[in-house]
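User: I'm putting together notes for a lab meeting next week and I want to include a structural view of one of the chains we've been expressing. I don't have a solved structure, so I'd like a prediction I can at least talk through. The sequence is below, exactly as it appears in our construct file.
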Amino acid sequence: MTKDVRVRFAPSPTGPLHIGGVRTALFNYLFAKKHNGSFILRIEDTDQTRYVEGAEQYIIDALNWCQMPFDEGPGKNEKFGPYKQSERKHLYKEYADKLIASGNAYYAFDTSEALDFHRKDHETKGKTFIYNWHNRLKLSNSLSLSTEEVKAKLDAGDDYVIRFKSPQDETLHLKDIIRGDIKIDTNVLDDKVLFKSDGMPTYHLANIVDDHLMKISHVIRGEEWLPSLALHYQLYQAFGWETPEFAHLPLILKPTGKGKLSKRDGDKLGFPVFPLQWIDPKTNDISRGYREDGYFPEAMINFLSFLGWNPGTEQEIFNLEELISAFELERVNKSGARFDPDKTKWFNHHYMQQQNNDELAEAFQALHSELSEIDINYISMVIGLVKERATFISDFWNLSHYFFTTPTSYDQKASKKAFKEGTTELMTQVISIINNTEDFTVESLQTEIKGWITSNEISFGKVMMPLRLALVGALQGPDVFDIIYMIGKTETIKRIENIITSL
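Assistant: Thanks for the context. Below is the predicted structure for the 503-residue chain, given as structure tokens.
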């Protein structure tokens, strides 16, 4: 790629960052790193009425947790700053004025009541009201009014907006990296508002001006912005600026495959749609996050990468470096990507197996006060025995509680299956063997007990099932001899004696 790659992720701080936004950030990040470019965070907060306290920091924290730190952005490497649109508002009026001077935009003084009247009038006639070439000369704007009338309204402080003057009878030929060539008839476009009399630009103007001044080379954003592509393309032309390349990502769909994934879907089906937990500052309502639900950031990145992108191979597990190497915008699909909650768990299970046992042990210990006095090395060894069955750290207790506490009850169905006539005598023999095993290792225990079973021609099930039940309280868990070694000789004998007494 000949030009410097500079991409931006430009969320609005109106609440928590949806995973659709995280996926957009990820694809921008992967593309930038693939081409040794820059990943920029810009906060688009021109609409201050929708600003939510804490949302901006949430966005930054989410990107950092997802291992996608920005190269430029608020408070970091601000060579094209500031990176908050609310701190750049002094810039936009100048560019709006340039469009008026070049004839590409105009003042519009229509009141909301007048526009509402026209909309309703069109509706009664079965039509849709569009403010553009076919009616703008009949409305209250600087195209239909005299220069003196316009000046008088501006001097009087009348409310106005600045609208883009969309051309008539033209065909726009646009290009999208993902969707290919797109043709647009300008007659169906409306004259979008670019600037308001309160001194704030709309998204359309601020977005284009900022992308140009920040030298953005590629605009990679969600499909919902595709209808705005024609206007944005025309604005670049109107200013005489080089147009960046565009790529519009497909929607993330509900698990059913129908409709855009929403928070309600997550609440209904029991999975988060935000990377981090969010506490609404107004209502104190808590929304679940992937981090707090026990997902690893590597798992989240991996499953998000497959929502709309296909590497063209059978490989599914990619670390971040592998994703950067494999990622191509041309391999992003046009159609929506169905979200699969079970697949996200599958990825997390995989990454669980890659985690360091000592770190997992510390996290597990922090979750359970009853483990606070237990040696962390012992907990780490337990984790090593059970984590292949775990998807989340929160799974560890159910998988390993018998390593830390003596069973006080036994699974009823398993008890009937394991304890038969003669079982008590067999368990008494096992106690004797364990007592007499001087070299208390997994290998020695296995050799002694299995050797005794074989030499006496006893069915393995008659010994191993009740033995496991005594140790665990159920017919589950890792290898019996690993459990015996971990809990020790005294505790093992105690548990076997307990089950003999109980059953």
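A couple of points you could mention at the meeting. The longest strand covers residues 171-176. The CA atoms of residues 139 and 350 lie 62 Å apart.

User: Perfect, that's what I needed.
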